[in-house]
Predict the structure.
Amino acid sequence: MAIQQNTLKKLSELLGISISTVSRALKDHPDISVKTKARVKELASTLDYEPNNFAVQLRTQQSNVLGILVPTIRNYFYDFFISAVEEEAVKHGYSIMIMQSCDKLSLEISNINVLRRNKIMGLFVSISIETEDMTPFRKLQDSGVPVVFFDRVAEVSGFSKACLADEAAAQIAAKSIIEKGKKNVLALFGHPHLSITKLRYASFKNYFDLHSKDSNVTYFFPEQAEASRQLCSEIFKNKVPDSVFCMGDMILIGVMHAVHEAKLKVPEDISIIGISNGLIPTLYNPKITYVETSGFKLGQLAFKQMYASLKGNEEIEEVILESILVEGGSL
Amino acid sequence: MAIQQNTLKKLSELLGISISTVSRALKDHPDISVKTKARVKELASTLDYEPNNFAVQLRTQQSNVLGILVPTIRNYFYDFFISAVEEEAVKHGYSIMIMQSCDKLSLEISNINVLRRNKIMGLFVSISIETEDMTPFRKLQDSGVPVVFFDRVAEVSGFSKACLADEAAAQIAAKSIIEKGKKNVLALFGHPHLSITKLRYASFKNYFDLHSKDSNVTYFFPEQAEASRQLCSEIFKNKVPDSVFCMGDMILIGVMHAVHEAKLKVPEDISIIGISNGLIPTLYNPKITYVETSGFKLGQLAFKQMYASLKGNEEIEEVILESILVEGGSL
DNA sequence: AATCTCATTTCAAACGATTGCATCATTAAA
DNA sequence: TTTAATGATGCAATCGTTTGAAATGAGATT
């Protein structure tokens, strides 16, 4: 399998000069004569010589690899994020190593170890549902590897974070619902353990409590599409709310299944509003009104933070990506 | 930044024994006394010693990293594929490095170089639209790095390939349309340069030519959602076909936008059938009937092939993932 | 002729882990 | 008492690249 490499040694033997001369010649070191440089470079190019990265890395102790650790890649938000980070990383000479925690703490921890062993120079992470202890991330950061949290971030200080404007997004949604005069609201959120859920929930609830006390808002925390569908099916049997708020795409999908099953018309019978990365809400007819939280833009933002850290910026900052309302016809 | 590592040397100095003894002790080499092993291991664990991967890799010339090169990650098919490969890879001690070609040949080539320089031990690749020359992949493979093509595969032999049953899938769709008695078919495919398009198109057309000569089938090759929407909008103005076949999700999305705009009822006014990884067709009401081509399963299959190659299997094989019809209510 | 430049080139020591072989004791066997 | 065997440890080379310092040789200066 592993075919014999071209090495400086081989070139030096072929040319009858020392290894160091070859090395310097290839790097255009001023000490080396023009003739020698030419000879060396020619041979190097005919032999397709390429420095052995393993050796280079051993010397420099630098891998130029950045790690991304997410619950899953199978997600319209994360893959946009990853895509953006990859695009930026390539431009700056970094490569991307990806791992999934599958929302399991044990996998998350072992994957952090794999990434550390692989000598990543920085880590982007969206934590698993089970994560509570931030020690592994702290250790990584203390050992000189900057950590940037995104989406699902640690609820402790001392880390860089690239967040969606969770509170603002939930507020925008709440405001929109109130403005349309909806009073009977079903509000669906994700796993209550996550900071992102807590923020959105608190903000949404707070806005309603302040600005529309007479509204009747019911809160649930179904986790995925199927749970949402079942929940809504049950609810719709008794009384159909005049509006539904969906914290994420999967919840929206479940809700829409239930809406279709119950043959409800959007927005006549029921209004829908969500928070989304963008594609899913536009597939329905009418298109669902949603607060946009762009994974792609967040990826670019997170990379910027990471890059600053890699270049020596010691500051820990939280960046927040603004949300905008994208009007569909569902509200 | 780069904090000082614990090394064998450091341990050996702290313990007053030689580097080689420390190394052997940590690996439970039988030559080393029980006492020494205990001493070494204790210190190693209190200091969180971890072998320096750079050094290990230099000796072994093995990275245990697999590369994935795709046109984009922002795609419901590729992210399932990547996810599956990552899951399998982790189980077997490999890590995944990802790069995107953005369907540009130049980026594809430079990314292959980056991956090679990063000493990947194997490469999964779905080629860009512009790719014609397979030399870079051949070189990689000749240098001992197995290449497994998937989805968009090279139209030459000598490479391992993990394909969707493109021909079968198109055939299943054609057959379903014919069985429903549809005679006026609009068939939409992706970029005509890709082997995947050629196969699906040829198979679809062939099936119709053989089994339903009196059908009126129109073929187009719109590339993405918006092109499909515009195309359909125009077509629907003149005459609405009784059925539409969509080669992929993006085309389906465009078609459905046009269908909604034209206020056509599915399946009464128009029947729809597609080929898809799975999620998108299920979002519509009624759910779109589609031929399933699972990115996740394909990823598992591709990894199996890769693993065999990594373990020394020299055979070049093409694996095909079977397609199944998932009935929605759109046909 | 002796010294000094200067341009080139080579030596040798890193980086950190691994491993065949040599070197010690110590003890058992002759 | 000498030799051999055994157990435990250390030496030194290796992987391939880089780089400070030393060496070489030719030409210029005194």
